[in-house]
Amino acid sequence: MTRWRREVSLNTDSTSPPDRASTEVTFRPLALTSATVDLIVFGMISSLFGPLLVTLSHRFHLSLAAAGIVLSVYFVGAFFGVPIGWLAMRRFSGATVCLLYTSGLALHVQIVRSDSH
Question: Residue 25: what are its φ and ψ, rounded to 5°?
Fold first, then answer.
């Protein structure tokens, strides 16, 4: 099994393309399997959102339109949250980003909880 390694090119000419070996990224078989399973599970969960609208609207005594808005807000949060998290990971350590996101989640849960009573 080949381990990933980074080769540094001493070529300072910016017009020439980088070596293939220095830009190639490989997955180990376990990482590739894990990524594939994650995407399949995420797809399965996302495909349940449509059929669950009726169940969610009955469970929480909402109209079908209100339940649809909740899922739309979930999508928008993920759409903007992922790039923000990616940029934060480039600037801060993983532990700091995880702490900030978890604290933000706890704050939002408390806001929703206090608003619902």
Answer: -115, 130
Those residues whose C-beta lies under 8 Å from the C-beta of residue 97, and which sit 6 or more positions away, are 85, 88, 89
12-41 pLDDT, tens digit each: 555 655 565 556 667 788 988 998 999 999
**Residues belonging to the chain:** 117
Q: What are phi and psi of 80, to 5 degrees?
A: -90, -25
Residue 39: exposure state from Cβ atoms within 10 A (0-12, 13-18, ≥19): exposed
CB burial of residue 4 (10 Å; 0-12, 13-18, 19+): exposed
> How many Å apart are CA 49 and CA 42, to the nearest integer?
11
CA distances from 74 to 10, 68, 69, 90 (A): 47, 10, 9, 24
Burial of 67 from C-beta contacts in 10 A (0-12 / 13-18 / 19+): buried
Are 67 and 55 within 8 A, CB to CB? no
